[in-house]
Every structure is written in structure tokens, then in C-alpha cells.
Amino acid sequence: MEKTTDGGTVSTLRVPLDSALRGAARDVDEGVVVTAVGPTGVERSGPLVTATVDGRTAFFTDPDRETVRGLAESLADEELPTDGADGVVGHDIGVGTLPTPDGGPLSVGTRRVLGPCGWVAPDDLDALGGPTRGDPRQEVREAGLLGRGRGDGAPDRPVVDEWDRANDADGDSVVVVNANEADYRAEGDRLLLESAPLTVLDGALLVARAVEATDVVVYLNEDDATARQRVEDAIAALGEHDGRDDVVPEVVAGPDQYTAGEMTMALEAMEGADRIEARLRPPYPSEHGLYGRPTVIHTPRTLAQVRSLVRDAEAFGSRSESDDPGTRLVSVAGDVAHRVTVELPTGASLSRAREAMDVEGRFKMACVGGQFGGLTRSLDVPASAPALAAADLGTNGVVELFDTGQCAVETAGSRARFARDENCGRCVPCREGSKQLLDLLRDVYDGSYEADMLRELTRTMATTSTCAFGSEATRPVTTAMDDFETEFRAHAEGRCPSGACDI
């Protein structure tokens, strides 16, 4: 939040936590409030520094130490520096969310969940309005909030159903924050933990009250050292707050493996299993989960939405207004200069995410949904889960943009190879089906395109696999066949239309 100097002027300089520029700002004057913040979700050529005076904020991308020192000196004189700024935005004094400029990636979508990112210090609970109180079940039930992300216990389904199941089960419940995402294209969860971890922990404690959980566990990827440090600092801040909960979250780390993010394989990893495999369902984790306890599993994205809903149910929306109320985080990757994570209302078109970034070449296609997303020529589809499912696109919050140099057949094949190499091996449809899938795609390069066999195999895998890994691994292939059938036939004839494959 903005603070005042001795003269009464609101003056704050915000510098990224992991930037060497912080020292340059602090050396100038004790009257300058320097706030160390997390990332905004926009990857640029360098750090973003903002200077705020009395409801006006100037943005500076990749400034050097001398520039930052000059910004601090201007703030010490109660003047807003604007020379060399990338933009200047007016806003209410004391606003708790990053003001958005009129143009550029930060202007795309909304910043409800992402609001504190790049604006509020990750461990500043007071700047977020303190802990959120009460039992969230009524608001969440009325709104119809759906789970977000492949590691969620209720992906694209009403989360309150899992809470009810946990409440009906025997034993002390536990809440797991599943933040182990090894697909580094999906940046939404990692961004929240690095920049606004308290919003995630606040949401987790709300869920803990709803299911009377005695423990909250944050499950991270072992390689996410920054996220872990920010979460541990946020937990310490919670413990020091006067309104703290009795439940103290703890942090554990799991392997940097794609499968370890699936909700039941996450439980296996947390229990220390030598071989991580998917669990059969039923029973569901909410009935028999971590060490046999009723376990509610949500991603950071879902928990931040829970907090957003309880804080402002009217602005959040309800099931009467949308079949997927709230917002969704979308990370833009692929053939782009820098990755960006934006927040879109679920009724907004995915094409708005494309506005946040230019494709380096001429746009050909997109893969929507991460590792096992769907290939498509068009992004003119709402960001809501039901709309994405109807278009056979994934909902894991990733849009990869590809130029004309990318081959749809090769893209589908590389993801089929990933499925063959990385599946847990528990069930036959996924273990053996992924092998056969890759073999049939290799046959295309040898002149044999068996479309009917491919479609029957993908149907079997999608409907009989134990977990979402096997059922979703077919999506890149089926959607590539739907939208790029001519490329498959061209490869069978010995040529690659995009020129990417050596045939």
C-alpha cells in the first residue's frame, strides 16, 4: 500500500524483490518508501519499477541503478518522475491493486486475482486487508465456483461438492495446495506463489474452515526455490498477525515431474512412495486421501478465486450469470518474444490473450491447454471451462502461439512421445496406448495414414485411462487431425507443408 512522507505526500517506489536495483533505491532518503514486490506476470527485457506519488504511478522497464536512484531522489522531493517512463497512470490513493496502463500486456483482461502482483509486497498481509474471515461454503455454493488447473481435486467442476464429500467422510480433514506444476508453460500458479502467496494461503485457510481441516499443506515443485521462500515468508507473516488462524500451513516439496502434479500422484509423492502411480477412484481423495484422511486438493489458482469470491461476491458473479463464474489465468507462450500471464473474465474470448503478445512470425495455430492442449486455428472461443471443453481445448491456462514454421503433425507427435515416455505405467490404456499412438504417427511419415485406427485408439485411451494423463494425452492428436487433416495426408505423401520435418 502507499504510505505518506513527513510532508503528507503519498510516495512509494516499487522494485522487484529479486532485483539488484533495491539497494540503489534505499540509499537515497529515509523518507522514500521502497516496497519490494514480486513479478507482474509480464516477462520483459528487464525488471519493472514503478514510482507513485499521490495517486499517479509511472512505469519504468529495465532501468539501471542510476535511473532508480534518480527516481528515488524525485520521490524524496515529492515529485513524480516521468522522463523516460513507459507510461503514467492515474488512480485512487491507497489502491491495493496494480494500476493498468492503457496499452501493452498489462492492459489485457482484468487484474482481480493478479491485482497484488507487482504492487503489494508478498508478505504484507495488512496491505491485502488482513485475513479473510468466515465460512465460505454459502458464497461458493451460490456462485458455483469451478476448480482450476489439472492438479485440482475438482477440475472444471463445482469445488463445493468436494468439500461436502470431505465433510461427510470420517477422520480429520486436510487441505492440500497443489502447486507442483512441472509444465513451465503454465505460469499462473507459480506467479501467484511468487508474487501474492498470502492470497493463496488466505484461500486455503478459508477452505480449511469449510471442511474443519486440522492441517494445510502446500505441495511445491522441488525446483521452485523462489516460490518456496515466498510461501515460507508469507506463512511467517500469518503467524505474526493478530488475527492468525490456529491452523499453520506447512510446506513440502515433490519431484520435478509432470505426473507428480496429478492430484493422486501428488498424494503418493507426499507420502514418500518409491514409485509414483495414479490411484484408482473411487474412493476419491476427499474421502480417502493423504495418509487415509479426507483430503481437499486445490491449485493456487482455485484458492485465490475462493478468496476473491468471499471478498466481493457481487463482483465475482454467480452461476445464474455464467456457467463458470470468476476469471481464469492464461499464460501466453510459444513463438513469442516474452511470456505473459493475463487474467481474463470467463466470458471473454481467448483471442484477447493473444493481444498481450505478438507472434514472432505469421500466426498459424495455437495449442490451448498446456502439454496436452488442443491444436486450433482460431482463438475465438470463450475462456470458460465449458466452452473450452466443447471446442476440445484444454483448460490448464496456457495458450501457445505458433507461426507458420511449426508443423501440426510434428507438434502432435512430440506430445505423444512425451505421453509414452512420462506416463506412470499404472494402467494399460495409457501405458500401451501411448506406445501405439506414437507408432501410428510414425507410420504417417512412412506413407501410411490410418485415420480410423488413430481415432479408435484415442477414443479408447480417453474413455478408459485411470487418470487425466491418459485421457488428455490424446487431445493434441485428435485436434490436429480435425484442423490439419491435409497436413497428415501430405506427410503420408512424403512432404511437410511447413517445411519443418525432414521427410
State the total count of DSSP E strands: 14
> Which fold name corresponds to the CATH topology of the largest domain?
Rossmann fold
Shape: globular
Query: How much β-strand is present in the residues?
Result: 15-25%
Number of domains: 4
Query: Strand pairing plus helix content: what structural class?
Result: alpha/beta
Helix fraction bin: 25-40%
Largest sheet: 5 strands, mixed
**Mean residue pLDDT:** 92
User: What is the CATH superfamily classification of the largest domain?
Assistant: NADH-ubiquinone oxidoreductase 51kDa subunit
The N- and C-terminal alpha carbons lie at a distance of 59 Å
Radius of gyration from the alpha-carbon trace, in angstroms:
24 Å
CATH architecture of the largest domain: 3-Layer(aba) Sandwich
Please list the strands of the largest sheet in the order they lie side by side: 2-1-3-4-5
- Can you tell me the CATH class of the largest domain? Alpha Beta
Organism: Halomarina oriensis
Pfam families: Complex1_51K, NADH_4Fe-4S
Protein name: NADH dehydrogenase FAD-containing subunit
GO molecular function: 4 iron, 4 sulfur cluster binding; metal ion binding
